[in-house]
Amino acid sequence: MALPHAQSSEVVSVRPLGQCLTEATTFAIIKAQQLEVIRVVLPAGKALRQHDTPGEITVQCIEGEVEFSVGPTAHMLRACDFLHLAPRAPHALRAIRDASLLVTICLAPG
After folding, report:
1. Which domains does the chain show, CATH number per domain?
2. Which letter does DSSP use for residue 55 in this model?
3. Residue 96: other Cβ atoms inside 10 A
4. What is the distance between the alpha carbons of residues 79 and 87, in angstroms, rounded to a whole number?
5. pLDDT beyond 70 at 105
6. pTM of the complete model
7. CA R_g for the chain
8. DSSP conformation letters of 37-101
9. Considering only CA atoms, which of 41, 29, 37 is closest in space to residue 66?
10. Bridge partners of 84?
11. What's the Cα-to-Cα distance from 36 to each of 18, 22, 56, 71, 77, rounded to whole Å?
């Protein structure tokens, strides 16, 4: 069953999941007209194939370690690291260690 999205003015925790990380799954925290915020959970070794988004995105590593590739360049994201991508930037990611990320997507380009 899908989790309900957060409502306007609702406080949502994005603290590290710690020991619960291995049992957690990816879920959308909010999806509004112009903005989507997702907690992405990736077990070690799991990857998301190359894709892009119509608008800008930000990615904050909450815990774990992820190899984040933007085109031909790979970046290591660890706890507290933050990354911004321009619209349509091709990117892929692979978890080196169990990880959770806070991803913000601008759904309305420009």
Report:
1. 28-106 (2.60.120.10)
2. S
3. 16
4. 24
5. yes
6. 0.91
7. 14
8. EEEEEE-TT-EEEEE--SS-EEEEEEEEEEEEEETTEEEEEETT-EEEE-TT--EEEEEEEEEEE
9. 41
10. 58
11. 24, 24, 11, 23, 21
Phi and psi at residue 82, in whole multiples of 5°? -135, 140
Separation between Cα atoms, residue 97 and residue 100, nearest integer Å: 10
CA-to-CA dists, residue 26 to 29, 35, 41, 42, 105, angstroms: 10, 17, 5, 8, 15
By DSSP bridging, strand 35-42 and strand 27-31 are antiparallel
User: Residue range 20-37: average pLDDT?
Assistant: 93
93 neighbors 48 (Cβ within 8 angstroms): yes
